[in-house]
């Protein structure tokens, strides 16, 4: 297979060299061009037809968001946002992901080997999926879900646990926009750099009926609330406190290559909640979440996986399905209805869990 052809767009000559060096060190990638500004970038997109673009947020003449909109409209292809880990940079990057950017990475530094690895992995994944039809993006217009009650029983589970990675920003916006205001407590691990999850939670809170927040340590779970795991630092877990449940933020090594890890979150939900839960695995690279979702299913929880056609990257849902963790595999636009269908899974084969 030919290497993934990449165009680097950044106004800093030093950063273009750093990114170019990181990418060219992998034989699966070929850097075919560099551009210091959007004007030159448009010319190179037309002449070079790269498979993947890496895009800086802040540039002269036109910012990264405006450039992204034009590229996705006229010459669509995977775009990876290369962003500084700042509050303002995070907010703009979340906007870019909602507009259809493939993924985001922190700007590489010579002191951070992980940033180089992340960039290389995501460029290769983006290149592999270039010719794949992108799932249709959710409409920005809010609309009411089908009313619960008439032929549709309200969900009885105590907790909904969701895991996502690449493509998860768009998927979660679409999914959570269907959640009613009084939804069961919902906990989410979305792979995302530190500082980005707060901006993401704030964006979701403006768009969704439930209250959405970045999870704090020892926050009591409540109906009508959605809790996003803070990015990059600690694992999010659920634990019992008296008759209720609370969040726990725990330091520790990466699990399944990630911190926070979907496996850790879902494993804790299996132990603390047992059969009174729904687990959902969405689009993403790798295998994180497969074992945690399997534990949930073994404890009698209902488990759902996003199908291949509607996933930007059919990695995490595929592995979860292969290990037997997924009871139902559904397109993204049917997952919310399944969560709130009230249908109970069979308990046959469920192992004894502490719940």
TrEMBL record:
TM regions (residue ranges): 79-102
GO molecular function terms listed in the Swiss-Prot or TrEMBL record: protein-glutamate methylesterase activity
Membrane recorded as keyword: yes
Reactions catalysed: [protein]-L-glutamate 5-O-methyl ester + H2O = L-glutamyl-[protein] + methanol + H(+); L-glutaminyl-[protein] + H2O = L-glutamyl-[protein] + NH4(+)
Active-site residue list: 165, 191, 288
Family of this protein: Belongs to the CheB family.
Entry comment, domain topic: Contains a C-terminal catalytic domain, and an N-terminal region which modulates catalytic activity.
HAMAP family listed in its UniProt record: CheB_chemtxs (MF_00099)
Protein name: Protein-glutamate methylesterase/protein-glutamine glutaminase
Species annotation: Aquibium pacificus
Chain's gene name: cheB
